[in-house]
Structures are given as structure tokens and as C-alpha cells.
Write a structure and sequence with these properties.
disordered N terminus; alpha+beta
């Protein structure tokens, strides 16, 4: 009887592990190309980065994105300002933290995102 219980437990654990692994592998991402970048020495002139895709019901394609992982794994572009007329927390322009500015094409137009490149973990 104990063996049947153990076998059932192992079978359930295997099914759950497969379900979670499948869902993790199926995460969709959006790919963005940042170009005409300006920043301190060592800032690339362009780069490609990804972020997890928002659900279809989300109103804006980058509304939840503040961090974009560079596809080469070298850094994370942390966006502090989403461009003229879009969200920019008060004081970001004066803080000196948004040292990298790049153009990026989105589903709703071209914007200049400003932020910093942080080393990837």
C-alpha cells in the first residue's frame, strides 16, 4: 500500500514538474532594437533587447517594461524615462541617473528612452 502511495506521489510530482517547465519555456518575449544611442564611454551605438510580452489585454506594448535584457546577455537597459510626453518620474531629468538615451520603435511610434545600462546578473 505504501508503494502505491509513493508511486502516485511521484507521478503527480512528475506531471506538475512537466507543466511548470512547459509554461516557463513558453514565455513570450518582445524584441526591441535600440539605436542612435548616446551615453558615457563604452555605450553601444545600438543594441537589441527583450522583455516579457504583456497579455493581449494590456493597453500599451511597453507599459510594464522598465528593464530590457540585452540579447547578448551583457547588460540590462533600465529605462527611467519613456520619452517626451510619456512617463518620466519627477526629478529624473535632474538626477543625472539617466545617462543613456536611445531611440526605439514600438507598436505606437518611435520614442527616445533614457536610462542606464546595468551589468547583467
Amino acid at each position: 500500500m505504501k508503494r502505491a502511495g509513493l508511486a502516485t506521489c511521484v507521478a503527480c510530482a512528475s506531471i506538475l514538474a512537466a507543466a511548470f517547465t512547459g509554461s516557463a519555456a513558453a514565455v513570450d518575449t518582445n524584441i526591441y532594437t535600440f539605436y542612435d544611442c548616446d551615453g558615457p564611454a563604452g555605450t553601444p551605438s545600438s543594441f537589441t533587447a527583450v522583455k516579457t510580452r504583456l497579455p493581449g489585454a494590456a493597453p500599451y506594448g511597453v507599459s510594464a517594461a522598465a528593464a530590457f535584457r540585452l540579447t547578448d546577455g551583457s547588460a540590462i537597459f533600465v529605462v527611467l524615462s519613456f520619452g517626451e510626453g510619456n512617463f518620466s518620474p519627477p526629478g529624473i531629468g535632474h538626477s543625472g541617473n539617466a545617462v543613456v538615451t536611445c531611440s526605439v520603435d514600438t507598436a505606437v511610434g518611435t520614442f527616445e528612452f533614457s536610462g542606464l545600462l546595468a551589468p547583467a546578473p
